[in-house]
Amino acid sequence: MRNETVLGGGAAGGYEEPSQCSEHVAIADRDGVVGTIMLAPAVIYVIALVAVPFFLAIALSLSDATVGNPSAHQFVGFDNFTSVIYEAAFTFALRNSIIITAATLVLLTVLTILQVELLACDFPGKRTAQILLILPWAMPVALAAIGWLWLLDSEFSPIDWLLRAVGLLGPGTVLGPANNLYYLGREWLGIGAVVVINVWRTLPLSTIIVLAGRTAIPNEVYEQAELDGAGYFRTLFQITLPALAILLIVAILFTVLVIFGDMTVVALTTRGGPGYATEILPYWAYLKGIQGGALSQGAAIALFLFPVLLAASVLALRMAYRREG
Amino acid sequence: MAILEVRGVAKHFGGFSALNGIDLATREGEFLTIVGPSGCGKTTLMRVIAGLEKPTAGAVLLNGKVVTPLPPRARNIAMVFQSYALYPHMSVADNIAFPLKARRVPKAERERRIRWAAGVLGIGALLHRRPARLSGGEKQKVALARAIVRKPSLFIFDEPLSSLDAQVRAMARAELRQLHDRTGVTTVYVTHDQIEAVGLGDRVAVMQAGALRQIGSPQELYYEPANTFVAGFIGTPPMNLLKHAGATVGFRPEHAMPRAAVPQFKDVATFQVCITRVEFLGSEWLAYGTVDGEFGNAKVLCKLREEAIGKVKVGEVQEFVVPRAQLRFFDKETGRRTVPAPV
Predict the structure, then answer these.
(1) C-beta separation of A274 from A182 below 8 A
(2) Which of the residues A223, A228, A322 would you substitute to probe the B interface, choosing the one with the greatest number of B C-beta atoms within 10 Å?
């Protein structure tokens, strides 16, 4: 709607409609056209690489396709879903996906707040610390996995070496008669190892998101709090955290999205073992669907991830918009 | 007993010297304004008093006790920043309650004091609002309520009126002074606006380049400036300062008049002035001119009443007079006030 002035009285006689603009308007100046052209690549990308595979997965999960015969159009209803649920691995996969994601979230939140508080101060060597802190995220995951595989090795683990050196590991000690902790070969140690690697990997991203918010808090507010008599923890819980609340939630929700559907860490370390003890839904979907060849069952397993991921995405977007609004 | 005492405080930031040995003592219950141009060190001095900065040398005393090594929260000082620094995620009531909660004041007493502070500032209706929904003036009142609720030994205000609209400012100035008179707490008020400083303070401290140039009542600073800086800083328009053979001569714009307007005045100094421009100010006129002769074409400003303006001939050299009692003399090199010299 343009603002229009209604001319009373003189319309009949005094006002002439200006002639239409006859100059050619260049494409670059036509907002509607330029907007569509600029958006098109992104939209095509999302449709081709996200929407199409998603609907394909739904179609596959309702059919009896296999790797050998991927184009089977036989509709089998929910048979795939029910057979997957009755498998022994399912309980473990679902339980572990939830536990690993939840544990990662909790640890991540605490460590993010710690790191942000640390990086908010000035200290000698801060630049170096900042570089070191972002490395886990910048590092290719395969390279990181090799490093972790060494750290968690069943014979040559440096962690075990350290524990032995301080007398916590070995015959007659707290951590058991063996000389090594078999991180990747035990159920709960394996789950713990996956959680630790997940936290290590996602901490930089989470810290950066929250740190941006922390530096936006004016320093005067902290000086005022000091003058008002507030100590460190009162300031942290009543001033810093409320100001960071929305950002923290967004960072956590993004982490849920990354971790819940991620199979790389398990694939490179425990491989779901021993047995199904450290199995997670995305990795099991890969094993069943690609390695095992049962495409339709793999798709069905993968779709169990969908409700959680959808909820997390919607919440994350809502929170992110609220901050801007 | 002086509530606040500053002894020989110096502050260096690397090579830069922000404060060069400041000595200051307030009287109990007084409203002291600290004024000076940007970069004079008044904010640094204020932060040193509050404890937000540690001085390089010197001591700060409160109620007779040395507090220099103590952190801000141990000093029982309330401060209001220029930006008010309200806690954005708390309601007005919680903002005011914060310093009390930090000192673990019991709930009943807390509620009573919040009601009292809100009543004094007239913000009872705003207690449940968040800072984002307050106007500039309302935010200032909340910041003040938060400051008085604690009954501190000293208030420090850092340019509290600069964020306000011009219309609101005059009202806020009067209310601030009334607040001080009502609570009786010693107040240090920092500003760059000399009109504000002179209008509000019981005493005014003028700072320049990290040093205290003069401290005294507004009248003392206006009529008996200790040096050319104070003479030229206090008063609008500032004192005319003319370099003469022996010294620098100063007189206030309102003390210079055309001889023709005041033929009866005796014991005056005469100046040959050529008025180049007159401006109508409403109650007075402002006359811009230059002084000939031994003062070498120095610029002068005169404030003239309606009766005198009729005697001014623009563009011609005229005789202007200043009563000798209103002349002030300053040393040519140091700028310090000296004895009268022949003119």
Answers:
(1) no
(2) A228
